[in-house]
Amino acid sequence: MDITFLLQLIINGLVVGSIYALVATGFVIIYKASSALNLAQGEFLMVGAYICLNLLSKYHLPFWQAILITFVFSAILGMLIERLILRPLIGSHLISVIMVTLGLSSILKALIQLVYGTDTIPFPEVFPSAPVQIGPIPVSQGYLYAIGCVTILVTVLTMFFKYSKTGVAMRATASSQQVALTMGISVKKMFAISWAISAMVSAVGGILLGTIRGGIDMSLSFMGLKVLPVVILGGLDSILGAIVGGVIIGVLENLSGGYVDPLVGGGAKEVAPYIALILILMFKPYGLFGKKKIERV
Amino acid sequence: MRCGDFKTSYSADMTIFESNSARVMMGLFLCLLFSLPLYTPGYLLDIVNRIGIAIIGAIGLNILTGFTGQISLGNAAFMAIGAFSSGYFGTKFGLPFYFCIPLAGLMTAFFGMFVGIPSLRIKGLYLAMATLAAHFIVEFLIVKWESVTGGVAGLSIPAPKLGSFTLNSDARLFFLIFIIVIMAVLFAKNLFRTKVGKAFVAIRDQAISAEVMGVNILKYKLLSFGISSFYVGVAGALVSYQAKIISPETFPVTVAIDYLGMIIIGGLGSILGSIYGAVFITLLPELLRLSTSALAGSFPLLVAKLAATKELVFGLFIVIFILFEPSGLAARWHSIKNYWKLYPFSH
Amino acid sequence: TIKVGGLWDLTGATADVGKPFADGAQDAIAMINEKGGINGKKIELINVDYAYKIPQAAAAYKKFVESDKVVMINGWGSGDTEALRDDITKDKIPFFSASFSGHLTDPTKTPFNFFVGASYSDQIRGFLDFVKKNWKGKVPAKVAFIYPNHGFGKAPIEAGRQYAKELGIELVHEEIIPTPVQDVTSNLLSMQKKSPDYAYVQTTVAPCANLLKDAKKLGIKTIFFLGNYGMTEALPKLAKDAAEGVYGMATHAAYGENVKGMKALLDWNKKHSPKAERDTVYVRGWSYAVVWAEGLRIADKNKQLNGEGIKKALETLKNFDTGGLVPPITYTATDHRPTTKTTVYVIKGGKMTKVTDMETPRRKEWLGL
Amino acid sequence: MVQLSCSDIQLNFGGVRALSGVSFEVLRGEIFAIIGPNGAGKSSMLNCISGLYHPQQGKVIYEDHDVTRLPPFERTKRGMARSFQNIALFKGMSVIDNLMIGRHLHQHSGLISGGLYYGPAQVEETKHREYCEEIIEFLEIQSIRKSIVGTLAYGFQKRVELARALALEPKLLLLDEPMAGMNLEETEDMVRFILDTNETRGITIIMIEHDMGVVMDISNSVCVLDFGKKIAGGTPEEVQQDPNVIKAYLGDEDPEGL
Amino acid sequence: MLTISNAEVIYNRVILVLKGLSLHVPEGKIVALLGANGAGKSTTLKAISGLLKSEEGEVSAGSIEFMGERINNLDPEDIVRKGIFQVMEGRRVFEDLTIDENLIVGGHTRKDAAGFKRDKELVYDYFPRLRERRNQLSGFLSGGEQQMLAIGRALMARPRLMLLDEPSLGIAPLLVQEIFQLIKKINTEEKTTILLVEQNANIAFSICDHAYIMEGGRVAMSGTTEQMKSNDDVKEFYLGIGEGKEKKSYRELKSYKRRKRWL
Ligand SMILES: Nc1ncnc2c1ncn2[C@@H]1O[C@H](COP(=O)(O)OP(=O)(O)OP(=O)(O)O)[C@@H](O)[C@H]1O
Ligand SMILES: Nc1ncnc2c1ncn2[C@@H]1O[C@H](COP(=O)(O)OP(=O)(O)OP(=O)(O)O)[C@@H](O)[C@H]1O
Ligand SMILES: [Mg+2]
Ligand SMILES: [Mg+2]
What we know:
The structure holds 5 protein chains of 5 kinds. Chain C is α/β, with parallel strands linked by helices. Helices cover 40% and strands 18% of the residues of chain C. Chain C is globular and about 60 Å long. By secondary structure, chain E is of the alpha/beta class. Chain E has 11 helices and 10 strands. In chain E, helix 3 (99-106) packs parallel to helix 6 and helix 4 (113-126) packs antiparallel against helix 6. Mean pLDDT of chain E is 85; it is low at 255-263.
């Protein structure tokens, strides 16, 4: 067996998984505050990338300024969406909330399209394009930044949800909105904060992906769908799970791409995450780290 | 004036139609419906046919998701299974459509029950994602299993034949589709008046106490997956006749999402809602397409913007509908009906 | 007026190339109409965006045929063209698609399907010929094919396999890549194990750019050749220096290229949309419209402005010249291969540079392959 | 005659010992009360009997069959029914539909005949509807027959819980705090229903209740749990005198005073 | 402190539940609200705390004033910030949160970190059972333990007016006494005004200053505890003291049926 090949696949899987983990974190944040799944997460990512692109190539801002402004925009976007769409739905059926996010994804896609068209637009190289050699394989620098972001995010978010008053209040809101109201928690505010944070995290993912790929277009939003198995695998309400899930799926994709694809003639790389997902759910129905839903009478 | 509830026997209290006038209205509606092919141009009839198919599929999904509470994103895959098995039986064994369609339903039901097995342990969004996973796995298998499915090239489906009579036009397919639609609606309506259907709803509302009421949860969940998939499989078979060529690309995951949209916009756990939702979600893109292409004729350079606008409007419609009708069109219909029934004493 | 259906993808999965193609075709028709139309009749192009969704394409098709009563249709992708194949034959509606699938060229099977340019199969054959001609190594050249697993991706592969064998070129690897843009490092690593000298990539420009970037990162030495939807002006912009030295098979002129027919495009755009960025896919759309408008003209002259008449008219085209936008087009009643000529380009200094013209023979057994 | 016997039931949740070695016997036709402080394991005990929890150790023998490992619906088939402490009705359904689900096991029309409806399924449906109406009448909830259960006041929901359990035509009825949240008058009504159920329908009743007045008045025997252990058992009078019970549960004051 | 005058509440725009209810809670007192099932007691509390909105209900007429300020149709979170805290019926704890976290959430509106910590210890002192399980998910607690947690959570908020919906529900007799003593203590020591919905009239009267009896969405009777205790109807129907001052056994009740309503 070719050890270098194996190592190359594993390391590449790890770094690619870091982006998955980052995007997955966005899902988890919203889930933790509202127990809803935001299926427009991929579009958040796309919007973030386009905003940053605009700032960089149209206004020629330095990268860090562009990022900060993108953050502000994303946060506003998140809060706006909460105000206009999520707030009226407080207390409605979970599926309705999910479906609304699907409608939202159409809207965001259409808006981007109206403004930027459907062409793939080149993304400026904000960090050096020279890949870095990790062991036997060169890795795009963008992925290294992703790993950095993910590490910081996990630590901060885990602490936030566990110890901060707001973090706990968010989880309380997810548990029962009505009771949260009687505690004096502003459910609206919790939603707004979580959507804002989630949109910002996604924007980071979008910017990183944009630089890694060199160009952005509508297909960026596909990342939302791509990351779903990651979120589920890790457990919907677990930040740690998002990371572990991202890494597992990243590595799995690469291994099956390297070893199974040649046997079956392609396609294994894309289904492998889903097969793994089903297998793992059989044994751990709430993902690897997800909390079991309490069903008691 | 009809006012209040004056039932004299329990069986009268349990009928589908509340009064004789409702029955007459329904009869009139059916006459109108079945005379459609007489005066509707083919391309419109094609849309009507697609609505019919969507109704069957949406009822199927609603049985599982709306009534039993098991969110499924596997509808497109189930449909594909129906379509390909019907196509396979039809082309490889030359079976006539009236065998192919039920067979497609059964195959899909079988597969649906298989997918449903983990539902005893996997719940809620996790189950939804498991069905999504099932979608991608099925897609993969369809692409790979070329000897049966024709791979990416797909299968070419001959028009269904009844003896020497070929159902090769939209009007003829219309009758096939809508007869099945009526059977599907009636069966579902009845189902939820009786034991099995009520057990489904019980599982959705309170699985634990349903179990204590003597409902075998696994059995009924599987049954729900089975019945739902049967419906969806039949819908898939009909799609194959309508599309004439089916390939993996005919059943992308967006189809599953559209179906979810139908039952939410129409009303979860409502047969009538499934119908409204199917009509709405099928018509909306057509209407938008028609209006954009009408505009595009006069402003060809605008067409790209219009295309994006179409998507925007679609998204807006979905959002607005859910915001203002969170419990679906069927619920709104009921409250309007009740309002008029008691008018002018509605408060 | 003459009604023609236009079935485009402006918002769907292939909108990145679907949009410029539609622009090109629409602009060409607008220009033709401005100049007086077809024998004095205006062409009315009925535009529909089907978002790359097959059921929507089918619905649009029905509307074209039954309610708009169009005489022909300009369509788009492989999937919908396949799905409509039988209806097209039955309804006798000439159908131009932007799918250059070789199997649409056999009139005994698909009598009403047309496209404009060398088929995907002839592109891959051109590539293999080029390799054969330029290969200096002692052992036979090693090639690999890279494509996604769908109709468009797979279209030229069988032809490529057969021709490589015939030429004695060793096909060492076929790599199937995932569809939406993703990291393809593992695919490239797999391919690298076979160390091919050349790799032919059959996909659209954005995934191509992505692939080239990953390849550059891995330091892969293989020379990449792209199909006609991969080699466009957008490539060097997206892939940046990773595009340097990459070859591609073009079926149409690049936008702004110094050919006779380009002037009309440049003039039109200067006047109507001076800011728009155009590319070879736009040229492609334009040349389509020019070709079928010619078919309409002949049919109209013959007083046969209906599906069959237009088909017949098109089949009389012999070396019809669009002014170099696309090599001369010929259709006959037994052969719908429009041309077998392709052009090899290479990216040099971020620009598409012409290398040489290729032409494969019109072999009988290749009809429909 | 012993109808139900639990022996040496042990139930752990991770580190929490909910029940340790509880044994008792319930005679056919009696009203058997389980009392004890909060968190003593009463509801857990009931869950073991009805099959929602499976004890790690010990046996539940019901009508001479070992049912310890059977799932809940199997036990229901054998004639057990129960109500829940934290109301577990089908909230979105009407009262009558809740009861009709109680008839689930007694209905035999299958999927196909149900889907066709007219014919045997309709006859059966009507028959069971009549049965439910009887229960509705018995419990005096006619006026809310068609109300959606989730919108009812707490006390009514408790009553519907009882109704639904009765719809099962049980032989053994397990009630978890049936009187909670009722005022004196309503408690009296509820007592009346329970006694009627017990006497005229001959249904054995196991009841958890914190209202000592009721427990002492109507139960035939009482079992007292504390910290998962059985600390006393016997007739109400015996239990009432037991110093352990007074200390752990009743308090020194006269329970009547509460 | 709290004055409700002529309040009407409608659910789903059609079901009229409160039909002109008036009620007054003086500062620093304990007021009890009694009444049959479905009389509208919980609805009254929800109307005060602003929770109706989330159940499709609204205060359609009349006014609710807290410290002289109209609070009808304010958002619940603002009402909590004004110092009104409701303990909902049926032990609504955050099942996915631990006991500790539940208490933290209870003090969500508080700013003083020190007092917060102290109060948490106080709650654990009151309910030692909760301390044992402080890091356990509250969904797994027994019914009574959840009720303790719900009351503990209210203590964390240090409200000015506490609305308690059936605090004795499912609580063992010994603990019921303790809880009511605790309520009294909160009232006297922390000066918290309390509006108490309770079915157990005996125990309610043991601590309250005023009592209202509701019937079909209206107040049927009201008065000081003494007045109420001495009313014959109250004695018979709420305290179970018959004519002969002798409490009947429940067993004897079954043979006859009676219903008396004031309205
Ligand atoms: N599913 C479970 N997981 C973990 N612990 C549990 C579970 N069910 C019960 N317990 C624990 O077991 C103990 C007994 O609970 P149970 O509900 O039986 O008490 P109970 O006697 O009914 O009390 P109450 O009178 O308050 O209802 C409690 O401490 C509770 O925390
Ligand atoms: N969300 C709702 N929708 C419709 N009706 C409701 C709703 N909530 C309560 N009701 C109705 O309002 C009336 C009063 O209910 P409420 O819960 O206030 O009674 P209560 O006095 O608290 O009774 P209990 O002592 O049983 O808790 C009941 O008849 C109930 O059916
Ligand atoms: Mg209990
Ligand atoms: Mg109440």
